[in-house]
Design brief:
The complex is a heterodimer of chains A (about 450) and B (about 750). In chain A, a hairpin with an 8-residue loop joins strand 16 (about 430) and strand 17 (about 440). Chain A has helices at about 1-15, 30-45, 115, 135-145, 160-165, 220-235, 245-260, 265-270, 275-280, 285-295, 315-340, 415-425, and strands spanning about 55, 70-75, 100-105, 105-110, 125-130, 180-185, 200, 305-310, 350-355, 355-360, 370, 375-380, 390, 390-395, 400, 430, 440. Chain A is built from 12 helices and 17 strands. Chain A is of the alpha/beta class. Chain B is mostly helical and about 750 residues long. Chain B is about 45% helix and about 5% strand. A two-stranded parallel sheet of chain B has the order 1-2. A two-stranded antiparallel ribbon of chain B has the order 3-4. Chain B has a two-stranded antiparallel sheet with strand order 5-6. Classes of the chains: A alpha/beta (about 450), B mainly alpha (about 750). At the A-B interface, helix 2, helix 4, strand 7, helix 6 and helix 7 of A face helix 6, helix 8, helix 27, helix 31 and helix 32 of B.
Chain lengths: ~450, ~750
């Protein structure tokens, strides 16, 4: 198999001495590279063609290359835009408690999101973006894979985070044990046709520990048992007579063990009472705190997805909003404060958006708002020039009035995707010809044709 | 000098005896012991009685047939018989001793005809001393010496130390020698080799149509196939593939002891009739038909899922012909999807946010994928193939959007509608299917859209509406309901049979004859009419696919008959071990069995069954309680994290994957599903029930129960030595835990 040959060559080139249990002679970097290509190569015989794997096209684009990692916050259900980040005050409709205030040209519901008002200088609110679909699952998947899920590659397309994980695999340090792509929610799109190593590592929202990283027998016994397992099983794992897949499994065992009883893991997942209180003592608050701690641990994670749900307010929206908004307000403002204090903000791109917006103007018959394609996306960190909005909607908030960027058209999810890749230094015009449909997988659909591209205005 | 002169004869005679002792140990597993080279073996001799007694004792066999010994002892063909050592105690035949390796099954003749005395196993010290001799490859119970973690780690470390370093340490030298001398196939094969198929080692069964094609293709390609599975491998593999369970220990032993020539066929029949077969294949078809409570487009609710799940299960239980199943799906009708399960299949293919044609198209595309293996029809629903499918499908390249519409037209009068369960509340609701009920659905497929999920549909050659016409061979409704016509045309299409057999084939062989199985290229299937260069025939074995499909039709679309045909073939029964250098391109030739990681459901159920500790999962009011993961009606919501982490898919855009991951390793090592079943504290558990057995039997018992095989020599001695401790109970727990984490538990090989 492709991976096997490369592995043997690595061994010959890098003989290793005296390192405990280092028999693969792989650094994690090498492992990732080889695994990535090897496992992808494993697809080839199964896909009835065996072309050269190295057919990855890139153009000579200039990426922004300002961020090391991304925090991707999704507002499940479709957050109303006209009551929050694209505030419109409707007489007799918008509650006075929202206390709309102009802050440096931005109309802001200070009564609803008081703490975030202080952090407007960190955030750029893109208001000229519209969703493609107003169906929850479709739109949610759309914003995670960055393309139409109902289109031809929709089923095999990887999550944006998986693309990041694959692209950044070579940057992992040997001692880093966290997965590149972490999802603090189990309801997350998968890695599509990309190798399993780029799959989102799912952590329960509000988790205070990484599940299944301790053994009921206790650490000492577990270590003995683990050693015993290898004595018993290594003949079948290393140079297995059955299949190289068993060696792959063994490699995952090694990585799994590295996450167990690991102080870095324990530390990252231990949320102190004081911190949790600061973040609002909510599930989403804990998720934000966890994300910060994981990034602080600097253990290889490059893309973290968080979700805050409950925004699908078809009825009683002004009764429901304050609670949800408070949770968001407390958590994200503390997250931004902490990222700045730890020096992480400059190298972390924070992206926040819902899957679509909600209806504008008067509320509906149940005092709620329904699905609407007009939406917003917020960028912060990674050198984004904050304190302003890009683009604008019309007076009522129903449609784009000014696009606010060089392309002069409505911004789309695909542009957001390109922005994320560009910020990370990833060529968003990349086309990989290793996809199972053999049509070429574009990181950004039509990216090469420059139909979609990054929102560079964020940085100047 | 002095030392050597004392030691040498001692060493020699010790070696001889230890070789004999080792030999005896292996002989009880019937490998190559020949106490008397007697040509006349018609009568069972005194020696054979001893052998039989040992076999019975060691393998819990109630009866050992003499012909089994016969086969065992004489299994080597003359050309393969290892050299015979003639030795007498005291003679200085160092050379003869060194010629043979006891692990290779040399035969030893003694001058005496009487039964040789049973030799006690050498003590550890003897073995350790003996290992100074570089020719000694006996890897004895070294771990008696190793009692602390540190030393165990030393051993681990030393195993994989760079071999260029000096071999100063005893443990490393032994281990490395063993590692160097073990055959490239694990010695588990050597232990189990004896229980090979009753029809010997010849893989070709010319009466099975699958074998005729597979083996002639291998011969043409000059690729030697793997050997056949031995009985241990076979029963585990086929039980998992057919029923999603591992075999019980009793069944394993009774199977291997059975010497009838047709025992494999009878096992297959037994498994096909087992209720667990229904569990597994209900899950399989639930995956294929994407039976789930909520996909990206519509909600069917758990009641709908259950109804659909029950329909699948009942159809399989009644052995409903597969074409009949397809007909029932296509013509599903009724007012309540909670009662008429097949309604959910059509409903699942919906596409909102557009005109009604988007729904019709989605159902058409799904039908083409599930029943005809033509996922590319979904592409043709948006545009002609030219310019899109050119490098993917020859048929697709020339396919036209009008053909998709002609197919969709059969469904253009069919409407899915919802009715709230409680009239006062919008949700939940159930679905109904009706035809010609509203103005929209009273006409043939209309070409009048500009919005929605697909490119505009506008009049084509003056056509405003498209009448139904089956694009794969023509035909349309003949004074009949459109869907009845569609069902007739689809099920009588040869492609329907091809797609079905290929989907099933993939489950057993790991790769379809056409792979991926929903990417059929209709223009590249006929070996009598091959496509123009550079296109090649798509199936790896075009004639096989054709004959197998025809066989399926002739059997009356009998799924069990198809599976029977597949698993009774020698091609299916090839081992996954391959001697010689393997070339990955031979995968498509099926020269060996490709291993597959078990489904999450299979792993869970294997842990449950082998441990004897049954769970009780409350899946809610609709699904009730289940103990076996394979009986879960849906893969979502996630009922068991353990199962989901093995990527069972969501029956929508995420299909079931056999990839491995970190989280799977974490689960197997630490999840409560496993941990709660390896502790001795549960009196019903495997550990508690095994503790009273003597160590030797205990190890065998665990291996047989969990891995469906005996331990190898190395495994046995490792396990036994680990049990020689005051914390025996803990060590038994450890042993069971290790077995659940062994790769030959996790994978089906």
């Amino acid at each position: 198999m492709f991976g096997q040959e490369k592995y043997e060559r690595f061994l010959k080139r890098h003989p290793h001495e005296g390192r405990f249990f280092n028999r693969p002679h792989w650094t994690r970097r090498q492992f990732m590279e080889v695994m990535g290509t090897g496992v992808t190569a494993a697809f080839l015989p199964q896909r009835n063609w065996a072309e050269d794997l190295e057919v990855i096209e890139r153009s000579a684009v200039t990426t922004q290359n300002r961020a090391r990692q991304v925090i991707y916050i999704l507002f499940d259900g479709g957050m109303t835009h006209v009551d929050t980040f694209d505030l419109k005050v409707y007489d007799g409709v918008t509650p006075a408690t929202f206390d709309p205030t102009m802050i440096n040209g931005l109309n802001w519901p200070v009564g609803l999101l008081p703490k975030l008002a202080n952090h407007l200088p960190k955030m750029t609110i893109v208001r000229s973006i519209r969703a493609w679909a107003a169906l929850h699952q479709l739109a949610r998947r759309w914003q995670q894979i960055g393309r139409n899920p109902a289109a031809v590659q929709g089923d095999v397309a990887p999550h944006i985070g998986s693309v990041v994980a694959l692209e950044k695999a070579g940057h992992r340090q040997p001692d880093q044990v966290f997965p590149s792509f972490l999802s603090v929610t189990r309801n997350v799109a998968g890695q599509g046709y990309f190798p399993a190593i780029t799959a989102p590592f799912k952590v329960n929202a509000g988790a205070t520990s990484l599940s299944n990283t301790t053994n009921a027998f206790g650490r000492a016994r577990f270590e003995q048992n683990y050693a015993q397992l290898h004595l018993l099983d290594d003949t079948l794992r290393i140079s297995s007579p059955y299949s190289s897949k068993m060696r792959d499994m063994d490699d995952f065992y090694t990585q799994a063990k590295a996450l167990m009883y690991n102080p870095a893991v324990t530390q990252a997942f231990t949320l102190s009472t004081a911190d949790r209180a600061r973040y609002g003592n909510t599930g989403f608050g804990n998720s934000c705190l966890l994300a910060k701690q994981i990034l602080q641990a600097d253990q290889g994670t490059r893309f973290i997805q968080l979700n805050i749900g409950g925004w699908d307010m078809h009825s009683g929206i002004y009764a429901a909003l304050p609670g949800r908004a408070a949770e968001l307000d407390n958590a994200v403002s503390e997250l931004l404060v902490d990222l700045e204090a730890t020096g992480l903000l400059n190298e972390t791109l924070v992206v926040m958006m819902g899957e679509f917006g909600r209806t504008v103007g008067n509320v509906n018959g149940q005092a709620g708002r329904d699905h609407h394609l007009q939406q917003f996306v917020v960028f912060a960190g990674a050198g984004v020039r904050g304190g302003r909005a890009i683009g604008a909607t019309d007076a009522i908030g129903g449609n784009v009035a000014e696009s606010g960027w060089a392309r002069g058209r409505t911004i789309r999810m695909e542009d957001v995707e390109a922005t994320i890749y560009s910020a990370l230094g990833i060529d968003w015009t990349t086309v990989r010809y290793d996809d199972p449909l053999k049509r070429g997988f574009e990181y950004v659909p039509y990216g090469k044709a420059d139909v979609y591209g990054p929102i560079n205005e964020l940085w100047f | 000098m002095k030392r050597k002169s004392i030691v040498l004869p001692w060493t020699f005679s010790f070696l001889l005896c230890s070789a004999y002792g080792l030999y005896y140990a292996r002989a009880t597993k019937l490998e190559g012991l020949d106490r008397s080279v007697s040509a006349n073996r018609e009568t069972v001799s005194q020696d054979d009685e001893e052998i039989k007694a040992t076999i019975k004792e060691r393998y819990f066999l109630s009866q050992v047939r003499s012909d089994l010994i016969e086969i065992a002892v004489n299994k080597a063909t003359p050309a393969q018989q290892p050299p015979v050592l003639t030795a007498q105690a005291g003679s200085s035949s160092d050379d003869q001793v060194r010629q043979i390796s006891p692990l290779r099954g040399a035969r030893i003749e003694t001058g005496d005809t009487g039964a040789a005395p049973r030799k006690p196993e050498p003590s550890v010290n003897e073995l350790l001393n003996a290992s100074e001799n570089p020719d000694c490859t006996y890897f004895g119970p070294l771990h008696e010496k190793i009692s602390s973690v540190g030393l165990q780690e030393d051993l681990l470390r030393s195993r994989f130390k760079d071999r260029s370093l000096s071999r100063g340490r005893l443990s490393m030298s032994l281990t490395e020698q063993v590692a160097a001398k073990l055959p490239s196939s694990s010695d588990s094969a050597e232990i189990m080799f004896l229980f090979e198929p009753p029809y010997g080692n010849d893989p070709v069964n010319p009466t099975n149509l699958i074998d005729r094609h597979i083996f002639s293709a291998l011969q043409t390609a000059g690729v030697p196939p793997a050997k056949l599975t031995n009985d241990f491998e076979f029963i585990r593999r086929v039980t998992l593939d057919l029923t999603g369970r591992i075999p019980t220990k009793d069944r394993v032993l009774s199977f291997v002891a059975d010497s009838s020539l047709d025992k494999r066929e009878r096992l297959v029949d037994e498994l096909l009739s087992a209720p667990e077969w229904l569990d597994k294949w209900t899950m399989f078809f639930g995956d294929l038909y994407q039976n789930t409570q909520q996909n990206q487009q519509v909600a069917m609710y758990q009641q709908g899922v259950l109804a659909f799940n029950n329909w699948i299960r009942d159809s399989l239980a009644n052995n409903t012909p597969y074409d009949q199943m397809a007909r029932e799906l296509i013509t599903a009708q009724g007012t309540n999807s909670y009662e008429t399960g097949t309604i959910n299949w059509l409903v699942g293919g919906s596409m909102g946010g557009g005109p009604y044609q988007d729904h019709v198209d989605a159902r058409t595309a799904r039908m083409a994928q599930h029943l005809l293996g033509l996922a590319h029809m979904d592409c043709i629903g948006c545009h002609d193939g030219a310019g899109h499918l050119d490098s993917l499908s020859l048929w697709g390249r020339d396919a036209k959007r009008i053909q998709f519409w002609q197919l969709a037209s059969f469904l253009s009068h069919t409407e899915a509608y919802r009715t709230p369960v409680d009239p006062a509340v919008a949700q939940p609701y159930y679905w109904g299917i009706r035809e010609d009920a509203s103005a929209t659905y009273q006409q043939d497929y209309r070409l009048n859209t500009t919005t929605g999920n697909r490119p505009p549909r506008q009049p084509f050659n003056g056509l405003q509406r498209v009448s139904p016409s089956y694009p794969f061979g023509g035909g349309g409704p003949v004074n009949e309901n459109y869907r009845v016509a569609l069902a007739r045309l689809v099920t009588s299409d040869f492609q329907f049979a091809r797609a079905a057999v290929n989907y099933v084939w993939k489950e057993f062989f790991g790769i379809g004859i056409v792979d991926p199985p929903d990417f059929f290229d209709l223009a590249r299937l006929d070996e009598n009419n091959p496509p123009p260069a550079p296109w090649t025939l798509q199936p790896s074995h075009p004639s096989l696919l054709r004959e197998l499909a025809q066989d399926f039709i002739d059997s009356g679309y009998d799924l069990k008959a198809l599976m029977r045909r597949i698993v009774n073939s020698r091609a299916y029964q090839l081992s996954s071990r391959y001697t010689g250098t393997w070339n990955p391109t031979w995968e498509r030739l099926f020269a060996r069995k490709l291993v597959r990681r078990l489904w999450g459901e299979e792993l869970h159920d294997a842990v449950v069954q082998s441990s004897g500790i049954l769970p009780n999962y409350n899946l809610g009011a609709v699904y009730g309680s289940k103990s076996w993961a394979m009986q879960f009606p849906d893969t979502r919501p996630v009922f068991l994290q353990f199962v989901e982490d093995f990527m069972n898919g969501n029956r929508d855009e995420e299909e079931r994957l056999s990839e491995v991951s970190i989280q799977q390793a974490l689960n197997l090592m630490n999840n409560n599903v496993v941990m709660s079943r390896v502790v001795a504290s549960n009196p019903n558990g495997l550990v508690a029930r095994s503790l009273s057995l003597p160590n030797d039997q205990l190890v065998d018992h665990l291996f047989l129960t969990v891995l469906s095989r005996y331990p190898t020599d190395v495994e046995k001695s490792l396990a036994l030595s680990s049990l020689q401790t005051s914390t025996r109970t803990q060590k038994v727990e450890t042993l069971l835990w290790s077995l659940y984490n062994k790769v030959d538990f996790i994978f089906n090989y």
